[in-house]
UniProtKB/TrEMBL annotation:
One of its GO terms (biological process) is peptidoglycan metabolic process. Keywords: Carboxypeptidase, Hydrolase, Protease, Signal. It comes from the Bacteria. Belongs to the peptidase S13 family. Gene3D superfamilies: D-Ala-D-Ala carboxypeptidase C, peptidase S13 (3.50.80.20), DD-peptidase/beta-lactamase superfamily (3.40.710.10). This is D-alanyl-D-alanine carboxypeptidase/D-alanyl-D-alanine-endopeptidase (Penicillin-binding protein 4). GO terms for molecular function: serine-type carboxypeptidase activity. Residues 1-28 form the signal peptide.
Length: 524
């Protein structure tokens, strides 16, 4: 059994904004629409009572002709949440290139005589969002293979490729302990193959009833302190186990219980100072490979005079966007933003990176209407964009050389494979949208969005964006899905899609949490 750190949901007040349909009447000289009932069918879907008092923006275009086939408040500035990752990933592919890699270096200071390095080992981060403990293990093995057995100095952890601001503009302070809100550094380590960066995995295993549960950390070198205790309850007693990181310190508070005989439970918590954390993991790997480092890990200044010893390259960007888009990995999106800033603007900062993303949009005719972007993942509520601009990006992308990789990296509706269906794996199953719709989801409290592609029955590829903001009641997810299904199924689906009722699960669940699709991925 695997779960992420649990958190409360927060109410977000609904803002009543009068909805007004844009003119839909065809001019006399306009050809008859290919799908004559589409506008009426989507209007009916949008009449769902869950949207009362909310703001909904929708646009659908034919990607071949560019014709707008439906729109409703397409120029409204709305909160994108994680649909913003489509903008960030497209800009990264265009500006950095699909073959771009992140290089982590091991460097030396001082002098070497035989197997003794009289100096330091510098672990210089190259911004790799996918660096794993095993990669550090491999680098340590290569240090040993190079004949170094003693380092008189220390491991210097160098995260200076990016600036020292760890959290994005407008990120919520009470999100900081959770795995969806990692601190961003030029040197970081990811806990798992989905690149959940700057986290420690806490595994809780029940013992005999009445005993304390066993708690283990991965990586073991994670510089965190444990306080409190998780007990073992009677068999069948259920679980109230919880692990919570105290704000701004590396202390994890343990509480609750886990039933005897239950499966182990994993919790993920962020760690303060990711560069130092990564250095500690590397230091432990060196020890396992027989390399003695005399002094403790320290942060590098980034100005040390050093010589190259070893390097490790990440997978290419075209592969890293898969977990970024499929499972909505926030950390990768933020690393791409700062990397764009570093490579194209000379500074690994959010401001420089976002300026380069905006320049990409402007160069491709997508600078109007003006919006606002402050980060790469959409975690900030400062971000604003229109459905029309989102859909225009979808049309633009199909003519780019990187489109195939990008299109395939989008979640695929109804496909149960985690790195295929991603956040849409459990959505739209058994409909015409299954294995048809490729789209990025985006949700947080009061926000539910979907932007991507649907192939119509006649073979046309339609680009669509549906953004619903400022709802306070049940999540209107089936409304979004119904629009996507209608596009994939054509007029034949209309009768079953008008004013869809919420599913039982939707009626009973709490409002959406802050982080994009955490309820889908089990990462709340």
């Amino acid at each position: 059994m695997t779960s992420r750190l649990r958190r409360r949901t927060l109410p977000f007040a609904a803002v009543a904004i009068a909805a007004s349909l844009l003119a839909g009447a065809a001019q006399a000289d306009t050809p008859a629409p290919v799908d004559p009932t589409l506008a009426a069918d989507i209007d009916a879907i949008l009449s769902d009572p869950r949207l009362a008092g909310a703001q909904a923006g929708v646009q659908v275009i034919d990607t071949t002709t560019g014709q707008v086939v439906y729109q409703h408040q397409a120029d409204a500035l709305l909160t994108p949440a994680s649909t913003l990752k489509t903008v960030t990933s497209a800009a990264a592919l265009d500006l950095l290139g699909a073959d771009h890699v992140f290089t982590t270096e091991v460097r030396t200071t001082g002098t070497r005589k035989g197997s003794v390095l009289s100096g330091d080992l510098v672990l210089r981060g190259g911004g790799d969002p996918s660096l794993l403990p095993q990669d550090l293990e491999d680098l340590a093995a290569k240090v040993a293979a190079a004949g170094i057995t003693t380092v008189t100095g220390r491991v210097l952890a160098d995260g200076s490729r990016y600036d020292s601001t760890p959290l994005g503009p407008g990120w919520a302070w009470d999100d900081e302990p959770y795995s969806y809100s990692p601190q961003i550094s030029g040197l970081t380590v990811a806990t798992d193959s989905e690149y959940t960066m700057d986290t420690v995995k806490v595994t809780v295993t029940p013992g005999a009833a009445g005993e304390a549960a066993k708690v283990t950390l991965f990586p073991a070198e994670a510089p965190v302190k444990l306080s409190g205790q998780i007990t073992t309850g009677a068999a069948g007693s259920g679980s109230s186990a919880d692990v919570t990181r105290k704000r701004a310190v590396n202390e994890l508070a343990l509480s609750g219980s886990l039933a005897a005989g239950a499966a182990p439970v994993d919790f993920y918590a962020t760690v303060e100072d990711p560069a130092r954390y990564t250095g500690e993991v590397f230091d432990g790997a060196l020890a396992r490979h027989g390399v003695k480092v005399v002094r403790p890990v320290k942060a590098a200044t980034g100005t040390e005079t050093s010589q190259a010893l070893l390097t490790h390259d990440s997978r290419p960007l075209s592969e890293l966007i898969v977990p970024m888009l499929k499972i909505s990995n926030n950390g990768i999106a933020e690393h791409l933003t700062k990397e764009i800033g570093k490579v194209k603007g000379g500074q690994g900062t959010w401001g420089t990176g976002v300026a380069q993303v905006n320049a990409f949009l402007k160069a491709n005719g997508l600078d109007s209407p003006a919006g606002r972007q402050v980060d790469g993942s959409g975690l900030s509520r400062y971000d604003l964009i229109t459905p029309g601009k989102m859909t225009a990006l979808l049309k633009l992308a199909q003519d780019k050389p990187w489109f195939k990789s990008w299109y395939e990296a989008l979640p695929v509706a109804g496909n149960p494979a985690r790195l295929v269906g991603g956040t849409l794996a459990a959505r739209m199953r058994g409909t015409a949208a299954e294995n048809n719709v490729h789209a990025k989801s985006g949700s947080m409290s009061g926000v539910d969005n979907l932007s991507g592609y649907a192939t119509a029955p006649d073979g046309r590829r339609l680009a669509f964006t549906v953004m619903v903001n400022n709802f306070a009641g049940p999540r209107p997810r089936s409304v979004l899905d119904s629009i996507a299904v209608r596009l994939a199924a054509g007029p034949a689906a209309a009768k079953s899609l008008k004013a869809p009722a919420p599913r039982t699960a939707e009626r009973n669940e709490a409002p959406a949490t802050r982080w994009d699709d955490c309820e889908t991925l089990g990462r709340c």
